[in-house]
Design goal:
about 500 residues, alpha+beta, two-stranded antiparallel sheet
Length: about 500
């Protein structure tokens, strides 16, 4: 079978030899010039003459034609290599195979060639396997390699390296390996994606938990706030109930005159009884003597030195009589205190801490139904230092917020100063350095007075109670006059009783 195969390849080469009268020298010249047919023909001439003598030259020209992909030359070259069993020509045999089997190496032919090589030239199997793989027959190359390794006991492998054969990786195996690696990569990417999704899910759950905890905390704080507000409300209701009980106990003595109670200062409001006030401040009270439109007394709590309270009374009280009442009350808390009700309150505020505008805005908010009015009294004076005249205008301002039931008077002062040129009667817009020094020295020495009343006085009056006590003032004074007259007569009678 081997001899038949080699003869077939050789016959194919001879069959295509050109006949004619061309000389050998001319054919050689054509061959050296690159003519593939001439190269093949010249090699065949030498082969026919003497294969042993011209072996290298024959191989040279067949190789040149084979590299030019000339099929007859490739057939003869492969036949020679297989016949002579030249292992070092494996790469050249691969080149010849490439020309012979290119485009026609279907599966049956591959099996025939493989069978032939196994039996006759096993040393060329590695080259053939590589050829099949590079020619696009990776599956066939893989089967051939595996069959050789399986049938190693049937063939002699002394002409090739078994380790090299085992090390061959065919294109299909490489493709499968790539596919496997791609699958592994896809699997790894899927696992990474799954891990990332799991981490994102874990992060989302953690954020939702954090959000839920924040909402629960917010809800808890809201509930605590609501509870605190409820407790404060309950406390306020208890306090209101206490105050109501106190009011019931000491009650407003003039509810038949008015049911309104205007807030004066802190928890003190109009209409409270003189007795309630004394008990509330625990007798910490001083007496003032200011003339009022009605019969009453002016009191000041020691701990509130800037606040004065004006009570209308139904009896005329002197300072001594009031001090006697207070002394008796401190000794005996059940001692009677003259009947009276709170009509007005006067609060003195420092002007360096608050402005009249602030005060007006406060009471305008607290008493939105009041009407605003203002009156100004100017107090103009002049003081001269050398040629400079200082013109002062102290403006006494009274702002009034008033309704049918309440009147709020806010009294304060504003100072306007002008520097005039005494000789020319002009307003001095700018003073020179000497004039400034003169003014400053005069101010320090007290020759020029810029002082003003730096206080704001707020008087809040319950108009309904004020009207009531003004209405009974004549009767109270008449009763006091009669009582004084009776006391005088008794004293006279006692004096003349001898």
């Amino acid at each position: 079978m081997a001899m038949k195969k080699r003869g077939m390849i050789f016959a194919l080469g001879v069959a295509v030899l050109l006949s004619g009268c061309v000389s050998v020298e001319e054919i050689k010249q054509e061959a050296d010039a690159g003519n593939v047919e001439a190269q093949y023909n010249f090699a065949m001439i030498l082969l026919k003459k003497n294969r042993a003598k011209h072996g290298n030259e024959i191989e040279k020209y067949l190789t040149m034609a084979t590299y030019a992909r000339y099929l007859p030359a490739a057939c003869v070259l492969a036949s020679n290599i297989l016949t002579e069993r030249k292992g070092e020509k494996a790469e050249l045999l691969l080149r010849a195979y490439d020309v012979i089997f290119s485009g026609v190496a279907d599966s049956p032919d591959i099996e025939k060639v493989s069978s032939f090589l196994k039996r006759s030239c096993p040393g060329y199997m590695i080259g053939y396997i590589r050829y099949l793989d590079t020619a696009g027959y990776g599956e066939a190359a893989t089967r051939l390699r595996d069959s050789i390794l399986t049938d190693s006991g049937k063939y002699g492998f002394q002409d090739f390296d078994e380790k090299e054969l085992r090390g061959i990786k065919t294109s299909c195996e490489i493709a499968k390996e790539k596919e496997r690696l791609a699958e592994e990569r896809q699997k790894r990417l899927a696992e990474e994606r799954q891990k990332r999704l799991a981490e994102e899910e874990q992060k989302r759950l953690a954020e939702e938990k954090q959000k839920r905890l924040a909402e629960e905390e917010q809800k808890r704080l809201a509930e605590e706030k609501q509870k605190r507000l409820a407790e404060e409300k309950q406390k306020r209701l208890v306090e209101e109930k206490r105050l109501a009980e106190e009011q019931k106990k000491f009650k407003f003595p003039y509810t038949d005159i008015t049911n309104q109670h205007i807030k004066f200062y802190k928890h003190i409001s109009s209409g409270i009884s003189l007795e309630w006030f004394v008990r509330e401040i625990k007798g910490e009270v001083g007496f003032a003597n200011e003339k009022m439109k009605y019969v009453g007394i002016q009191l000041r709590r020691f701990s509130w030195p800037d606040v004065e309270f004006f009570f209308g009374t139904e009896t005329l009280l002197s300072r001594r009589e009031w001090e006697n009442f207070i002394f008796a009350w401190r000794t005996d808390k059940n001692s009677a205190i003259p009947k009276g009700g709170l009509v007005a309150c006067r609060i003195t505020l420092p002007a360096e801490r608050v402005t009249a505008k602030d005060v007006i805005e406060k009471y305008d908010r607290e008493f939105p139904g009041t009407k605003y009015s203002q009156s100004i009294k100017n107090n103009i004076s002049e003081e001269a230092v050398r040629r400079i005249v200082m013109k002062k205008n102290v403006k006494n301002i009274t702002d009034i917020l008033e309704s049918e039931s309440v009147r709020i008077e806010i009294i304060h002062q504003e100072l306007e100063v002008e520097f005039l040129d005494k000789q020319n009667g002009l307003v001095v817009s700018e003073l020179n350095a000497d004039e400034k020094e003169i003014i400053e020295k005069s101010l320090r020495s007290g020759k020029i007075q810029l002082s003003e009343d730096r206080e704001i006085t707020v008087t809040i009056t319950d108009k309904i109670l004020e009207k009531y006590f003004i209405g009974i003032a004549d009767d109270v004074l008449e009763k006091a006059r009669k009582a004084e007259e009776q006391a005088r007569r008794r004293m006279a009678e006692k004096t003349l009783d001898f």
